[in-house]
Amino acid sequence: MNRVYNFSAGPSMLPLPVLEKCAAQMLDYEGSGMSVMEMSHRSPVYDQIIKDAMATLRRVMNIPDNYKVLFLQGGASQVFASVPLNLMPQGGKADYIVSGQFSGKAYKEGQKFGTVREVATSKPDNFTYVPKVEKDRFDPEASFVHICYNNTIYGTKFDYIPDTGDVPLVADMSSCILSEPIDVSKFGVIYAGAQKNVAPAGLTIVIIREDLLGNARPETPTMLDYAVQAANDSMYNTPPTYPIYVAGLVFKWIEETVGGLDKMKEYNEKKCALLYDYLDGQDFYIAPVKKENRSMMNVTFKTGDPDLDAKFVKEAKAAGFVNLKGHRSVGGMRASIYNAMPIEGVEKLVDFMEKFRKENV
Ligand SMILES: *Cc1c(COP(=O)(O)O)cnc(C)c1O
Questions:
Q1: Residue 246 sits in the same domain as residue 264
Q2: Whether the CB of 102 sits within 6 Å of ligand 1
Q3: Given pLDDT bands bounded at 50, 70 and 90, which one contains residue 271?
């Protein structure tokens, strides 16, 4: 077996012990005589799996009791629609900070449902930073303020939590959930597609403050109504059973093996510092992101010459570092170093970068 260092932005690496556990339990989950994939979602054995996963996530993220956790499908992209349907009445208003492509997509989707406003954007500067927005710039009558906390494509991250007063703050945390502790009580809704930092694709996590439930518009499809999903413990229909099982293993891995989110953050800080310190100490590669907005999870860099970038990506792949090509909309390189990326992978990548620099400077 030869596993590569996979720097994919998503779907991405999963912790090796989790994959090994999946393999060990593949044919016979704890004496049930079947794979988790083959189980009825209504069976007692599966019921325990989903309940454990939810409970572990609540402990790991320290989610307050007045929040519901939903395990849904449709990806973060579907939440772009379900948030306005659940939170904004007909003819309502919402504010969006557009700090990258996904928050731009969320903003565009929001336009279908009400009067939405782009409060601030960093688009003119190619999304190389996250706009600072003070409380008085938000509309107090807005149904919510939407942000994308970590911008996967550009490698930027909010270095503050916007103060939105009484207006619920909704955050897309698809590419940073569980990378560090977060004060959930500062948010009305936190959501994430699982395929970056949690599980295989197919699971979408929504964490919502209870008082925001129950106001979905009448035309909201049943499956998108958070109150229905909450009342049915995310089992209104068949949930993504296998990704939920893997997510449960990942939550346990963070809790027991890593030692919780404080430890996870320490590890992630160490990993990204290796890259950023290296980038700051040379002038062959360019790191375009403003320092205070550098992402811990997605590190972007380029040489400034697209042909040289392509050469880098190709040679990196041959050396066992895959998926380093930047998003098609920005070019250059991007190393996505989510929770599951071991520090050795980053150390070796830095060695490779230095070798490539010497050969091409
Ligand atoms: C990947 C990603 C998305 C899109 O997620 P899907 O689950 O594919 O819809 C949205 N937002 C962010 C921040 C992402 O990283």
A1: no
A2: yes
A3: very high
